[in-house]
Amino acid sequence: MSPFSLSRATLQCVRKGSQCGLFAAKNRTFCPGTRSASQTASRSSSLPPPHAWFLLSIPAAAFGLGTWQVQRRQWKLDLIKDMEARTSRHPVPIPSEQQDLETMEYRPVKIRGSFDHSKEMYLLPRSLNTHDTGGGMGARAQSGAQVVTPFHCSDTGRTILVNRGWVSKKNINPATRPDGQVTGEVEVTGLVRLNEKRAPFVPKNDIAHNRWHYRDVEAMAQITEAQPIYIEAVGGSTVPGGPIGGQTRVQLRNEHMQYILTWYSLSILTAIGWYWTYFKKVPR
């Protein structure tokens, strides 16, 4: 074949868009505006499959939960701050209406009357809260009980419940602390507390043996024929030789920070995993 014949064959091949033989690869150079079907298919196959986009909901949801925990943590901190502020307010008389107490938890109140030591109840086991204890009996002991005693209010005629404070295990029996069994009319300042739900793994109250594991105000009031009003005495109400007051712990369970770290870490790790699984495979 002559060179002229070869040139004519080449021109015909290019004009027809032929992919034949030796010149197939060079057609892209001759026609830069065209894209082969195989190249388009390769580019399409490199994109993540449809289900991959759905998997992006995992890091997105984890990020949303982390942000929600940030808001919950701030709400909990504000709530704790509010409760602590309540304890420092000026003491007020106990309201005459029972329902008014529902909004007064941790609010200081002042009462005047006398104790009925014959109906003492014991919350146990309890450890000593050394903050604001007032220096009463058994300050060095760490295991014991809190003494709850009916209190007859002289001004209103009502009988309520007063948590006088903490005693060591060896002093739970009132016969071991006669000096602390104050008689006559006294004035007590305390914090309003409401009913307490039994937490998981906490034993049920053993009413028959006077062993109370959680604060069931309704049941305690029924046993002692008192009204379901419960006051925790402050440290300043401690008498020499008696239970140590000031055992109120102003605290709420606050584990939101670890939840924040967990959810944000999960969001970051799953997002990185998704990127490496799908987009690192895309040719550049």
Automatic annotation (TrEMBL):
The keyword Membrane applies. The chain crosses the membrane at residues 259-278. It is found in: Membrane; Mitochondrion inner membrane. One of its GO terms (cellular component) is mitochondrial inner membrane. PROSITE patterns: SURF1. InterPro entries: Surf1/Shy1, Surf1/Surf4. Keywords: Membrane, Mitochondrion, Mitochondrion inner membrane, Transmembrane, Transmembrane helix. Probably involved in the biogenesis of the COX complex. Belongs to the SURF1 family. This is SURF1-like protein. It comes from Branchiostoma floridae (Florida lancelet). The lineage of its organism: Eukaryota, Metazoa, Chordata, Cephalochordata, Leptocardii. The gene is LOC118420516.
